[in-house]
Amino acid sequence: MSIPQDPPVPAPPQESSHSRTARRIGCLALPLVPLLLLAAIVMAPVWINDHRLARMVDRIQEFPLPPGTDFGYFDPQVEVSGDSGDCWYTIRFELSTDRPVQEVLNHYRQAKIEDPDGDLGDYGVAGWTPFDEPGTPVDGTSATKSLIIDLDGMYDDTWTDMRCW
Q1: Is the pTM of this model over 0.70?
Q2: In whole angstroms, how large is the CA radius of gyration of the chain?
Q3: Residue 91 burial (CB < 10 Å; 0-12/13-18/19+)?
Q4: Residues 123, 155: contact at Cβ < 8 Å?
Q5: Residues 125/101, Cβ–Cβ less than 8 Å
Q6: Mean of pLDDT values over 87-109
């Protein structure tokens, strides 16, 4: 006579090393979430203002150039600085021109290019030409000369952009 036996008990499922690793990474990453959110909150005004300045650079590049003038070798550069909540910007770009420097400067001084705040022509314009060591223009034999234009202005963002402090 045979004795009835209980059916075999299934072994508990074994946890794979992959799921353990994923769980550990998740547990380690969880405390980083608030720090990442804080970083995004702090950086958002910087990103927004950089976008506003990039749109102004686009408007400068779309503005008609003076006759006999082309953009130079490097892309426009933007610098932001500040003090006590005042935000200053400088947009620098190079032109290659056969026109007199004063004529090119007047062209950009009379331009009504929208600044980051939406104002028209609310910036200063300065220009300079590179010279070599003896004090003669770098490309003295050429009819065209290199001219660096700086557009300097101020935009409103007194409390949130950390570069303005």
Answers
A1: yes
A2: 30
A3: buried
A4: no
A5: no
A6: 95
